[in-house]
Write a structure and sequence with these properties.
Helix 15 packs across helix 16. The two termini are 41 Å apart. By secondary structure, this protein is of the alpha/beta class. The protein has 24 helices and 16 strands. It has an eight-stranded mixed β-sheet. It folds into three domains: 107 residues, Glucose Oxidase, domain 1 (3-Layer(bba) Sandwich); 125 residues, Enzyme I, Chain A, domain 2 (Orthogonal Bundle), CATH 1.10.274; 297 residues, TIM Barrel. The structure holds phosphoenolpyruvate (PEP) and magnesium ion (MG). The site of phosphoenolpyruvate has 11 residues, from strand 10 and helix 19.
């Protein structure tokens, strides 16, 4: 029977596919398809792993026998018996085989998929003893995964992550309780056609990465990962924030139609690629790209971006078990982005970890174990807390500037002392490179305006920086005291709250009055519903995911900024600006 769950719409379009439920603890398991010829080898890999674990357990049993400890540790003996039994269990072995043979999943993916299926059955058992056997099953699967990690997979080496050469092209959608931004990035080149998570807000960093992947996604869908079962048919409506489970044929036809309509619309937008972004009254608008990885430069160029307005460098720092990238690795990454943009400018933002962007799951330095991580040691605060680490990044950025136009952007500044320290460290980084006689280039220095305190002291920032970039995601979060990652308060996350609009308008006006560059690089810049308002407030530079650029350009081509300026002033003083937005 069809039913639906509702969440936050984060990435447009419709995806229809079978559900792959991934438990948070198993996100690092490889997901790829094998070809028909590789199926037997994959089953063999699984059999070897199982045999290795059986051997391991039997060896422990024998050593207990030899020490005569069986009587001393009856629980351990019983536990080992249970583990052996689970390993031979028909439901596990035949279920895993099913995923490999029918769905062409690789062995690890098949194993964790079947684990999810059986774990649910354990959860539903009345008998507490049997229910607790779920933990044993998880341990057994964990052991097998560990063995497989040590086995070189001849299949994995020959398969590209996104390749679907299996002949089994059923689209798949990923359902998880939570995905960290780093997990999400890992799935960027993956086989999935859409995403659903139980938690997360519209401008959480997980949502932002989902949007950059340009596939339908819904976050904050509460208990979706509990309600959806492995392999269920699911429709993800990324426009409405709705997830339909087990859709009826009528619903399927309806969503299939919407999906095709979306494709036609994209093809139509693609024709705007070579059209300059100029308004009806001749105002040239700069459309820049937000990227997470150097490789995203290709998508930026394809979408006709005239530069990168925000390179979120923190993704280079995440998921590395605390081992941060050294200067050479960072330099090469920034240089790749610069070269990828083929002479167009790249704005490299210094690392912004913390809050909902932990370095690693469970890592403490980023502040994610603190009470209010969004108010804690994140962004520039994190960098200034470890100047040696910050200098490594600054040197790498300055060196990349020798290869092309680079702007250096600093996140989350609020205090004059932070500005002074940052500028002094940039100067120190230059001196260190001079001392090494290493080449580096000139950079334009920019400050992100994303804390209300910064937006209220713009003259200070204009004195010290060449340009400003307004981070509306955080500016809204901090102005309205709404955690952007918390779906429970996402209804209060209001981009057109009068207070937010006042800060935006005055920042844009002051920067322009001094002839300094100002752009918006938060999600607002890529939201077509906001384009007219931002133009009316005087914004001429927008930075967004490459996937949004053509849709925003389409809006721009229809706008007259002179008319919009008058209208925007009325929105600015309205008690309920949202009511005027449709005018
Ligand atoms: C913002 O806050 O608007 C921004 C662009 O930075 P991030 O989303 O990475 O915090
Ligand atoms: Mg921010």
């Amino acid at each position: 029977m069809s039913f639906s769950v509702h969440g936050q719409a984060v990435s447009r379009g419709i995806a229809i596919g079978r559900a792959v439920i991934v438990a948070s603890s198993r996100l690092d398991v490889a997901h790829y398809f094998v070809t028909t010829e590789q199926v037997n080898a994959e089953i063999e890999r699984l059999r070897s792993a199982r045999n290795a674990v059986v051997d391991e357990i039997e060896r422990v049993q024998q050593s207990l026998d030899a020490q005569g400890s069986n009587d001393a540790h009856p629980e351990l003996t019983a536990l080992l018996d249970v583990h052996l039994m689970l390993l031979q269990d028909e439901q596990l072995t035949s279920g895993v085989k099913h995923w490999i043979v029918e769905r062409h999943y690789n062995a690890e993916w098949a194993l964790t998929s079947q684990l999810e299926v059986i774990a649910r059955q354990f959860d539903e058992m009345e008998d507490p003893y049997l229910r607790e056997r779920k933990a044993d099953l998880e341990q057994v699967v964990e052991r097998m995964l560990r063995v497989m990690r040590g086995m070189v997979s001849p299949v994995a080496a020959s398969v590209q992550p996104g390749a679907q050469g299996s002949g089994n092209e059923v689209p798949l959608v990923l359902i998880a309780h939570d995905l960290s931004p780093a997990d999400m990035l890992q799935f960027k080149q993956s086989v999935f056609a859409g995403f659903v998570t139980d938690v997360g807000g519209k401008t959480s960093h997980t949502a932002i990465v989902a949007r950059s992947m340009d596939i339908p996604a819904v976050v904050g869908a509460r208990s979706a990962s509990q309600l959806i079962a492995q392999d269920d048919w699911v429709v993800i409506d990324g426009d409405a924030g709705v997830v339909v489970i087990d859709p009826s044929p009528v619903l399927l036809a309806e969503y299939g139609f919407k999906q095709r309509q979306g494709e036609v619309e994209r093809e139509r937008l693609a024709r705007l690629k070579n059209t300059p972004a100029v308004t009806l009254d001749g105002q040239k608008i700069e459309l820049l790209a937000n990227i997470e990885q150097p490789e995203d430069a290709a998508a930026a160029l394809k979408a006709s971006a005239v530069g990168v307005g925000l390179f979120r460098t923190e993704f280079l720092f995440m998921g590395r078990n605390g081992k941060l990238p050294d200067e050479e690795e960072q330099y090469l990454a920034y240089r790749r982005a610069v070269e990828g943009m083929q002479g167009l400018p790249v704005t490299v933002r210094t690392v912004d970890v913390g809050a909902d962007k932990p370095l690693d799951r469970g890592a403490s330095r980023s502040g994610d174990d603190h009470l209010n991580p969004a108010l804690g040691l994140r962004a520039i605060r994190w960098s200034l807390a470890d100047p040696a680490m910050f200098l490594v990044q600054l040197r790498a950025i300055l060196r990349a500037a020798a290869c092309g136009a680079v702007n250096l952007l600093v996140p989350m500044l609020a205090h004059a002392s932070e500005i002074r320290q940052t500028l002094a460290l940039v100067q120190r980084a230059r001196e260190q490179l001079d001392a090494r006689a290493q080449a580096y280039g000139a950079v334009r220095l920019g400050a992100m305006i994303e804390v209300p305190a910064a937006a209220l002291t713009i003259p200070l920032f204009l004195r010290h920086f060449d340009f400003l970039s307004i981070g509306t995601n955080d500016l809204i979060q901090y102005t309205l005291a709404i955690d952007r990652a918390d779906e429970a308060v996402s209804h209060l996350y209001d981009p057109v709250h009068p207070a937010v609009l006042q800060l935006l308008a005055s920042t844009i006006a002051q920067a322009r009055a001094q002839g300094k560059g100002v752009s918006v690089c938060g999600e607002m810049a890529g939201d077509v519903a906001m384009t007219r308002l931002l133009l009316g407030l005087g914004l001429r530079s927008f930075s967004m995911h490459p996937s949004q650029i053509l849709a925003v350009k389409q809006q721009i081509l229809r706008c007259d900024t002179a008319k919009l300026a008058t209208w925007a002033q009325s929105v600015l003083v309205a008690e309920d600006p949202a009511a005027l937005m449709a005018d």
